[in-house]
Design brief:
The structure is a homodimer.
Chain A lengths: L3 E5 L2 E7 L6 E5 L5 E3 L1 E2 L4 E6 L6 E6 L2 E3 L15 E2 L21 E4 L1 H4 L5 H5 L2 H7 L3 E4 L3 E2 L12 E5 L6 H13 L3 E6 L11 H4 L22 H18 L4 E4 L13 H16 L4 E4 L21 E3 L1 H12 L12 H10 L6 E3 L4 E3 L10 E3 L4 H5 L7 H18 L4 E5 L19 H16 L13 H6 L9 H20 L4 E6 L2 E6 L2 E6 L5 E4 L8 E4 L4 E5 L1
Parallel strand pairs in A: 10-11, 10-21, 11-14, 14-15, 15-16, 16-17, 17-20, 20-21
Antiparallel strand pairs in A: 1-2, 2-6, 3-4, 3-7, 5-6, 7-8, 7-9, 12-13, 18-19, 22-23, 23-24, 24-27, 25-26
Helix pairs in contact in A: 6-7, 8-9, 8-11, 11-14
Chain lengths: ~550, ~550
């Protein structure tokens, strides 16, 4: 049975999984009319109700007024009514989709991507991506969270794109415009927990696990009593974003924190669902994991006992380069910092591929035998920047030259590169952690939680207050594209992106000498110097070409 | 690094994983001499100490006197010292091992198997098994629990065979005698939790998971910080029982409650360990799961994405027959009760093979495609009898005739049969849940917990007190073998066991008519009548033989 509503003639069939509720009604907001819902199979309640698109409604759950857990829009946020949304506008029918080998991703947060923080204003920046050669946009989670400012990982209405960024039709148009420009769009979705605030699911049924503890909120119940409906809630969500909004893929947040001991893990079922959607819709849909277990099974095929994802984030590569360039060694960076870590990562995919991690105090990871394209790498992302006390980007930590070197090794690596919004023009504004809530107590808990977290990194004392408007405003991109520095950055990124598209192949080998990393692809050799001195390198196969000098922290490419 | 001690010349090298402890010492009991332990790799503490076999010792963990977590014997129970055990007596070197297809198992609880409740007295009963044709004994957990009377699932020293049953050398001798009589011995081990009482592991290190909730005690930490040492603690335990005591296999308790999100699940690593032990020792070692997920992956080969176990308990078969014969429909029996359930089970292995379970409120199980020998079935076992408020066996619930019918369908099924001690001579003594503890508060918690549990089955009011000596004494076998009824039972079981050995084949088909189940094996057809009337059956392939009458609740076998 579906969650939420379906249109049948001029009515909607409204369903909700609410086995804990005896008396369930739909309340039409405009006139207060109540439509009683009938018990249906498996703990669902159903009603046919006259609610045209645009109409607002609540549920009355044993008298308690709550929004629809499968709400497709909360025009006034988490405490307001739900709105009936009909996405029947046709839009772009065909657009180009890409193989992983051609993917250049940029991660963006709609709220801070532009001054206005809306889909509509983001849409105006599409030329910027086209100009750069970026062909994938990955949106941080859109699902409705408490308040107006949030990274998106506190979502409580997982079908409702946040009202802060615009209306559903604005999101549709934004995606259409990207598609018209041959840019694919990936959505970050959070299935490992539900936000701690405004979460009404527990009132209705066993949406949450009694066996598993998630550090960020209640873990969804994928294997306990009632789990069939929770699984279908999530699988329907997967289909919904892909079909209704035409997303080209999903990035699943913290897959390592999705616990399920069912015979078929929910991640495998998501993978199967994606494959059947691909078949149905006739387009490639990418499934990307954020997996910190370094478990290569996540990208192994289902038939090879894997989870069948297309790709997985590779934190090791970021941490290795970051720690080496910054000399940071607190928190999880204690596991990194040697130059050889970068080489190992380039060669093997994971650095921790069965090695003991001091930070985690356990053996971490598996050997990674798949195509290196299946690992997504980055010099920064929302976590690596925003989960620093002061939200500094690489440019602010190591300066422009080394930050560009970091970007170069990402873009010229055998992995799939992902940029973080703004880095391509050398953005220096931070990306801070921010929330907005009317609840002071909750705001304090969040702030203290973060202060505590940063102890590990010895960032004691005052950190920017997550709930202040300043933390949000400061995180907005400046869009300083046109000054000299901005132009230089843009040119550099364009050059690297074009180079990548031309030369990076699945076949490669890696070596190094005097802190200069050499990656030999089929078409060219790439030299990336981490040396602070000029170094002499021998180009091409030994002895076949003259020696050349490479400047400190620079890149040199020699066609084969 | 090994947990516990190893003998090196006339000393032992004593190791303990105790990263939480700063100052660790070994305390020799006889003279109070303290041996300081040195920090070693990965949170281990080590010392070479002069402790000959038989010597008693404690650990002093930052001054706190505790037994060795890897103690091999607690001669005075959980609060007393540990004793150095050297199992260097050679004993039987070669004995017969069996394929699953030849296995007839009997589950026994040493404490109640004989009046004395010891290995030594159990050893005297070996002829009884030989006489019956039973070739596998499965021992309920031996590991040291609090108190003197316990089923064994509250173990806190998983390397220490309980002192209530005798000394380690008595256990060795018992196993040797069984081996001399060509009987294999399987040990029930508990790796899903550690008993709630007397558990000192948490003092020493992160032995317990912070992510998973186990209903019976703390869940072991197989994937969090510190988990390497916990995994090795368990894997060493697997090897220990097999190598030191020559067990022929392990039955892993509640595998469905062993949570591990590591790349390689601990159950798969146990399976791999068993396979390498088989190779090393040159004998077949059986690995049996108690899995209530009905997930056939547990017995699929590792290379087929399975867990590689030899067999798994099949509760569905028991519940189907039990519920049909008794008309019980409370608690989990609500999912059973139709005659067709028995047929479905016989045909498909699991009844819940992807069907919705009302009791569990979720879809349960997978299709079972493997050999039916990989499912262990029973008409009763410690749980099915002992987890009833009054511990009644089938004979007490449905009478001798139907109880024997139940045994017959178990023994003549295509599955692997397991008896519960005493049923073979029609034991009418109950098998109750019992514990012993000096702690009244804890005893009350246990008693109230059970009363609560039995609400489901509408067994309200007074149930036998688990901590009373009566509950234990009443559960002891009566050994009424020689009266008429006893003799009749024994003859019946012998006949069924011999029949099984002669006729049951992997190839079979199942049909039924008028409540008579027919199982066609290659060598014979078996008719098992659940009808309360005499029925006429057509023997053999249709029309080839005369019609025959089958009495109510009886068995008829016709060679092909």
């Amino acid at each position: 049975m579906n969650h939420g509503y379906e249109f049948v003639d001029d009515e909607v069939v409204m369903n909700v999984w609410a086995p804990k509720i005896k008396d369930m009604m739909v309340l039409r907001v405009k006139d207060g009319v109540k439509f009683p819902m009938n018990g249906s199979s498996g703990g669902f309640k159903s009603a046919n109700v006259r609610l045209p698109p645009g109409e607002r409604y609540y549920f009355l759950a044993d008298g308690q007024r709550i929004p629809d857990p499968a709400s497709r829009f909360q025009p006034d946020g988490i405490s307001g009514p739900s709105e009936i949304i009909k996405n029947d506008y046709e839009g772009v029918k065909k657009w180009k989709t890409y193989d992983l080998k051609d993917a250049i991703i940029e991660e963006i947060h709609i709220g801070t991507f532009t001054k206005e923080g809306t889909y509509e204003s983001a849409e105006k920046m599409v030329d910027h991506f086209v100009n750069l050669g970026i062909n994938h946009i990955e949106l941080m989670p859109l699902n409705q969270t408490y308040g107006t400012r949030n990274w998106g990982y506190d979502g409580v209405f997982i079908f409702a794109p946040s009202y802060s960024y615009g209306r559903p039709e604005n999101l549709r148009r934004f995606i259409d415009t990207l598609h018209e420009n041959n840019i694919n769009v990936i959505l970050d979705v959070v299935y490992n927990h539900i936000g701690p605030f405004g979460n009404i699911l527990g009132i209705l049924g066993d949406y949450f696990s009694k066996s598993y503890i998630n550090p960020w909120g209640q873990a969804l119940n994928f294997d306990g009593p009632g789990s069939d409906a929770v699984r279908s809630f999530i699988l329907q969500n997967v289909k919904y974003w892909i079909e209704e909004y035409k997303f080209d893929g999903l990035r699943i947040d913290a897959t390592h924190a999705i616990f399920d001991s069912s015979p078929v893990h929910i991640l495998k079922e998501i993978s199967t669902t994606i494959k059947s959607l691909e078949h149905k819709l006739g387009r490639k849909i990418k499934l990307i994991a954020e997996d910190d277990k370094n478990d290569s099974a996540i990208v192994d095929r289902l038939e090879d006992c894997g989870y069948g994802f297309d790709a997985s984030w590779n934190g090791d590569f970021h941490h290795s380069v970051h720690s080496y360039l910054t000399s940071e060694n607190r928190g999880y960076y204690e596991d990194y910092g040697n130059f050889t870590d970068i080489i190992d990562c380039l060669k093997n995919g994971y650095l921790y591929n069965g090695k003991y991690s001091k930070y985690l105090r356990k053996t971490r990871g598996t050997v990674f035998a798949g195509s290196r394209r299946k690992l997504v790498v980055f010099d920064s992302n929302h976590d690596q920047v925003g989960n620093r006390a002061f939200g500094e980007r690489p440019v602010s930590l190591v300066g422009d030259l080394k930050a560009r070197l970091f970007a170069a090794i990402v873009l010229l690596s055998p992995f799939t590169p992902m940029l973080f919004m703004g880095e391509e023009y050398g953005e220096t504004n931070p990306f801070l952690f921010f929330i907005q809530t009317e609840d002071n107590e909750f705001a304090n808990i969040v702030r203290n939680g973060r202060m505590n977290e940063f102890k590990d990194f010895s960032w004691n004392g005052n950190i920017p207050d997550p709930s202040s408007i300043e933390s949000f405003d400061k995180s907005k991109l400046s869009w300083k594209l046109t000054d000299n520095r901005g132009k230089q950055f843009i040119e550099f990124y364009k050059k690297m992106i074009n180079l990548r598209k031309r030369i990076v192949s699945d076949k490669y080998s890696v070596s190094s000498e005097n802190n200069v990393i050499r990656i030999d692809y089929e078409k060219a050799s790439v030299y990336i110097s981490f040396s602070d001195k000029q170094q002499i390198i021998k180009q091409g196969p030994k002895g076949t070409r003259d020696e050349t000098a490479i400047d400190p922290f620079s890149i040199l490419v020699q066609d084969t």
